[in-house]
Predict the structure of Enoyl-[acyl-carrier-protein] reductase [NADH].
Amino acid sequence: MGFFEGKKGLILGVANDRSIAWAIAKRIIDEGGECGFSHLPDREDDEKKRNKGRVEKALKKLGDGYQPAFLEPLDVQSDEQIEAIMKVAADKFGKIDFLLHSMAFAHPNDLNGDTIETSRDGFKMAMDISAYSLIAVCNAAKSILSENASVLCMSYFGGEKIVPGYNVMGICKAALEASMRYMAYDLGPAGVRVNALSAGPVKTISGVGAGVGPMMKMYEHVAPMCRNITLSEVGDSGAFLLSEMAGGISGEVMHVDGGYNAMGSPGRLVEFIPKD
């Protein structure tokens, strides 16, 4: 019997079968959990329905026998769509035991330049999608969250310290982590826990697109564990935080980065610095 047996919940933000959200969802499903999924809305002129299709393709890799409870479009900038997916969840599940928020976006023009050059409209959009959406989702879900339910959002070390190239998204992650703590306080009296998982660099499609290769090489030398993390390790940790095994944990940022965040110096990387 799996530790999610009889548990039901929402997975918001799976893009494909190489995403962190997918790794967490897969572990939950393997442990007996039942999941409803969101997908990015398809454009009206997109006959191939690519956004929904990517998630459907990922779900098929679980085996022909697996069927998600539902798969609904979700634009987190739309309160109407947030309310709509919560209604679907309520109709299907009644109450939900876990909710994964794994959504972030900033315009490439604002990510590729210096942070100081971030556009006003780009900043508003990035903060709306990447940080405010957690507040909006928690507010819409509060009536269907079961006692002892758990909410988890995804962060990164760039929200705590300067990570060149992460730029405006680092500001968004700082706001997301602060929002998480206040959601933990607001939902705590109902028995609901809210946490964040801060993963080190992994080879997701978005990570590869952002050029995590050099970052991963650095982590190998700086992190106490002398290696990078795996996608399955992040999935295990995320599932743990969403389970009742983490029943006494709320308002926390769990780092899954081989200990990189604990370092106060370049560690073993100094061996590669030329000596005078």
The first strand starts at residue 8 and ends at 12. The beta strands are 8-12, 34-39, 70-73, 96-101, 145-155, 193-199, 253-256. The radius of gyration is 19 Å. The chain has a mean pLDDT of 91.
